[in-house]
């Protein structure tokens, strides 16, 4: 490791300490995000101006910087499935009127499908309006591996009929879906969570002595996951 890389990492550690000190001052999340965006952009721009494009010192510095960046992104991905699951179970268990259950479940799945369709349409629209192509992009090992994964997923759903697509929403292996290994994993986890919530409500109705322990357990699980989300986000 060269002296330049060590100096760069020293500055980076200083930036992390500065961001931590800002977090300790009880700043709002939006302000912390803005501060992080400005300082991160400034650090990256400074490296580019000092060393120039393609410098080995920048590449080595980024290898260490990515430990923090990629680690944070990984933590965000980690909390998605637990958050979806406990939120859906909690919503079903705490539902006052059982008749609204089907409506809420259908609405949740419908919103997921609708937002997915909107994102896809926005992506297609932007691509056509601005004439975006992959021509000229430099692919690294990570990008190549990601493209292979996406092409594999696209191939699995491209030839599906609508009935087959609906069947794919059914969580045949919910634990595998929690890893996000399918394009419909989120919807499958939602359905599984709703079913767990329905089962819990039936147990609560049949055995009243278990109603309070089940409610308490769900509240503890939700509070714990929400606290984890807060820890990661801040």
UniProtKB/TrEMBL annotation:
Its main location: membrane. It is a multi-pass membrane protein. One of its GO terms (molecular function) is symporter activity. Signal peptide: none annotated. Keywords: Membrane, Transmembrane, Transmembrane helix, Transport. It is found in: Membrane. Coiled coil: none annotated. Pfam families: SDF. GO terms for cellular component: plasma membrane. The chain crosses the membrane at residues 5-20, 32-51, 71-95, 107-130, 183-200. Belongs to the dicarboxylate/amino acid:cation symporter (DAACS) (TC 2.A.23) family. This is L-cystine uptake protein tcyP. It comes from Vibrio ishigakensis.
